[in-house]
Amino acid sequence: MSEFKKTAIVTGASRGIGAGIARQLAQDGFAVVVNYAGNAEAAQSVAQAIESSGGQAMIHQADVADSAAVTSMFDAAETAFGGVDVLINNAGIMALAPLSEVDNRHINQQIDINLKGTIHTLREASNRLRQGGRIVNLSTSVVGLKLENYGVYAATKAAVETLTAIMAKEMRGRDITVNAVAPGPTATDLFMEGKSAELIERMAHMSPLERLGTPQDIASVVAFLCGPDSGWINGQVLRANGGII
Ligand code: NDP
Q1: CATH for 7-238?
Q2: What are the residue ranges spanned by the domains of the chain?
Q3: What is the pLDDT of residue 167?
């Protein structure tokens, strides 16, 4: 049965945007690897929700910053589902501080997870994705907005956008597209944590649509880029932010 299904690996799929993407791709017919870093219960509940709606999913713990763990995750996906067709580089962290104050731990963590993590998964994907595959990397609209305090985080995501365009060219001849989605403020733990209600309200009104994005808003865009109607979009960054920039 699983031979007929395409397989998607979604990194950081236990919560937030990644969980929304995993559920949407499962609904669209993909067998999904629900990757997580530490939150096994949350990953399990995403996989259970997929299976109880008739989809196929497995959970897999791997810190994307650990290249050996990323290799093992692709091995596990191939063993369970027979191959990998789609990679969604969604796992990410954010620590805000002005450049005058940013601490070494936060510099290293954001570079290790957001940038090196993406490089690790792209390397595996470039060696393993089947013909006709899809890669979607999560960037951020802050790459365009260039807000104060977002320096290190935005820099890691600017690098992800550059990797997106180069990877698209490196996939020449394999019918594999590589794109990035750059959300604006989206109602998840990553966005909400550490912000006052006033700041959240102000940021919700940055968009002319006057609300925060939802994980489903972003999942719909990612699913489009993984589906049959987006095959001519390649090497692009799609800013999904309600019109902020
Ligand atoms: P959340 O903090 O809500 O969820 C993060 C997810 O990433 C969790 O599933 C977490 O797993 C996983 N994760 C964290 N570190 C690692 C790691 N080292 N290896 C594997 N998985 C990891 O984040 P969001 O859903 O908000 O963000 C998803 C992506 O979207 C990120 O790349 C973020 O930068 C980007 N983005 C988000 C925006 C927003 O406003 N929310 C705006 C623009 C971009 P676990 O549960 O196990 O900890």
Answers
A1: 3.40.50.720
A2: 7-238
A3: 98
Which residue has its alpha carbon closest to ligand 1 atom 23?
190
Q: What is the model's pLDDT at position 2?
A: 42
CA angle 8, 49, 78 (to 5 degrees): 25
Residue 138 alpha carbon to ligand 1 centre in Å: 9
The residue ranges of the chain whose pLDDT is under 70 are: 1-4
**Residue 33, ligand 1, Cβ within 6 A:** no
For ligand 1, atom 44, name the residue with the nearest CA: 140
